[in-house]
Amino acid sequence: MLPENFLASVSTASVIPAFEGPGRLTATDVRGRFTDACTAWLTRSPSLETRSAYHRELHQFLKFAGIPSNSLEQLTRVRPHHVAAWRDHLREQGLSNVAIVRKITVLRSLFSYLQTYGYLGANPAHSDFVDVPPVPRDGKTVGLTPQDCRRILDAPSITTPEGIRDRALFAVLAYAGLRVGELTRLRVKDYKESGGHRILEVRGKGGKERRTPLHIEAVERLEEWLNTGGHRGSGDAALFRPTKTARGRGRDGFQLRLLSRRSVQKLVARYVEKLRLDPAVTVHSFRVTALTTARERGSDIVDLQDFAGHADPRTTLTYIRSRDRLSKSPAYLLRY
C-alpha cells in the first residue's frame, strides 16, 4: 500500500529539465509547459463528451496521486509502479475491468501527448510497463432479440403526439444504430435525401461525420413525426424535442430545444419496465442489436464498421453478440 501523496518520495530534481529546448528551464517554466500541454490535450478532441470524460479521468488520478491541479509539473514524478497502484486501487473499489482499462488508457494518452509536446520522460502508463486487466471479447451491453426489439418498436401509442415521436425515435435507434449522443444532436436538416436514399447525416465521436441510410420503416415513422411535430422545414430545429408538459403528451406542443441524453435514457427505461424486458436493456442496447442482427444476416464487417462509425473493426466486433453460438452451447446438451 502506497502512502498518501505517494509522489513525495520522488526527488524534485527530476522535474528539471523536463522538456526539450535550449538552456535549463526553471520550475516555473516547467509548470507553465505542463499546464499548457495538459490544456491542449484536454481540448484536442472536438467532442465535448470526450473532453469531459478525459478531464474527469485525469482529475481522479491527480486526486489519488496527491497532485494539486495547479501543480501539474509533478506528473514528472509519476512512475510505472504508481500507475499500477492506481490500477489496483480501482480494482479494490469494485470497478469493472472495462472501466479500469479506460482510465489507464486515458492516462497513457496524456503522457503520449506530453512526449509529442516535447516532454523528455517515459510514459509510465505504457503497456510495456503496466498490464491492464483482461476485458471480455464481447461488450457488456445487453442486446435485444429481434422479437423484443419489435415489441419495443411497437409499444408507443399511435394516438398521441408523444407516442408518435417515441415510435420515430425508437425506429432511428433500431435501424440506424446510433449512439445516444448522436441521436440527441440530430437536427431536422440532418434528415435528407441523397441518391434516391433517405439518410441521416450523423455527427459521431470526435466530430466525425457519416451518412446513414434509413430503413423504410424508420422513414415512414420520421415522416409521420415531422408532420405531427410541426417542425418540417425548420432546418436547425431539433429533430427530437421534449413535450411542453408531461401531462399533455405532446398535444399542447413541443419545446424547441434538443431532447437530452438523460431524457432518452429515462424514456427507454420506462418502456423496458412497461414491457417487462431485461432491466439491463439501455439505449445502447439498440446499437448492439442493430450490429448483431445485421451481422447474423450477412453484413460484412467492413460495412458494419462504416455503419457504426468505428475507426477500428475490432471495436465493431465487440458489439456483435453471438446468439447462434450461445444457442449451440454444450450446456443445452447436458442431462443428469
Low-confidence stretches: 8-17
CATH-defined architecture of the largest domain:
Orthogonal Bundle
Strand content is under 5%
CATH level-1 class of the largest domain: Mainly Alpha
Classify the secondary structure makeup into a structural class: mainly alpha
How many helices? The count is 13
- Based on CA inertia axes, which overall geometry fits? globular
Question: How much is the radius of gyration in Å?
Answer: 24 Å
Can you give the helix content as a percent range?
40-55%
Tell me the CATH topology of the largest domain.
hpI Integrase, Chain A
CATH superfamily of the largest domain: Intergrase catalytic core
Distance between the termini: 48 Å
- The quaternary structure here is single chain
Largest sheet: 3 strands, antiparallel
Summed up, the domain count is 2
Mean pLDDT across the residues is: 85
Instruction: Record the strand order, biggest sheet.
Output: 1-2-3
Number of strands: 3
In sequence order, what are the helices and strands, one letter per element? Answer: HHHHHHHEEEHHHHHH
Question: What does this 3D model show about the protein?
Answer:
Strands 1-2-3 form a three-stranded antiparallel beta sheet, with no helix packed on it. The protein has 336 residues and is mostly helical. Strand 2 and strand 3 form a beta hairpin. Helix 6 runs antiparallel to helix 8 and helix 6 crosses helix 10. The longest helix is centred in the N-terminal third of the chain and has 21 residues. The protein has 13 helices and three strands; from the N terminus they run H-H-H-H-H-H-H-E-E-E-H-H-H-H-H-H.
